[in-house]
Amino acid sequence: MGISDIKRKYTMEEMATGDVLFAATGVTDGNFLQGVRFGRNDITTHTVVMRSTTGTVRYIKARHTQVEKFHLD
Q1: How far is 54 from 19, CA to CA, in rounded Å?
Q2: Do residues 25 and 33 make contact, with C-beta atoms less than 8 angstroms apart?
């Protein structure tokens, strides 16, 4: 398919068929999500997950205590 007209507004069905899942995690603070928070012994992230079939919207606040997995050296 591809996008041939960059000024046209495409519908969701034209861009993706079936059950569409969207997820985003905030990196910096914004109107929609908080950015990553670095604590002394943990990292906190805020994520939104949306599913087209059910209309479900989930907000996830995750606290990561195994900070070594992020390779922050």
Answers
A1: 9
A2: yes
Encoding tokens for residue 73?
């050296």
Handedness of CA 16, 21, 27, 31 (dihedral sign): positive
CA distance 5 to 24: 26
CB 50 within 8 A of CB 32: no
Residue ranges, the chain, pLDDT below 70? 1-2
* 23 half-sphere exposure, CB direction, 13 A CA radius: 6
Whether this prediction's pTM lies above 0.85 is answered by no
User: What are 48's strand-pairing partners?
Assistant: 24, 59
E strands present in 1-73:
21-25, 37-38, 43-51, 57-64
